[in-house]
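Appendix B. Raw example, untouched.
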Amino acid sequence: MAKHPGAAVERRAPEGDVCASVVAAVSEATGAENDSLDPLYTVVEPGVLRSLCQTRPGVEGHVTFTWAGCEVTVHSDRRVLVRERTAGRPAD
């Protein structure tokens, strides 16, 4: 698994698969295997992410949370942005 320390990982989730895209992006950012990460549901309700990505066109929003040492932002247009948190970077 390639790790991209300090780099942002961005991807667009396929229709109906936002949770899997979050897991894959965090795995890529940290270099951790998918199955070694704590379950996503321990930090965010997966239904919230799915609902966010099913909003009507023209309605924008996002959810940001911290998971596996990363700041994860999921946008209503199914963009997933993951940034590994660094010691000097303050929490938003």
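End of appendix B.
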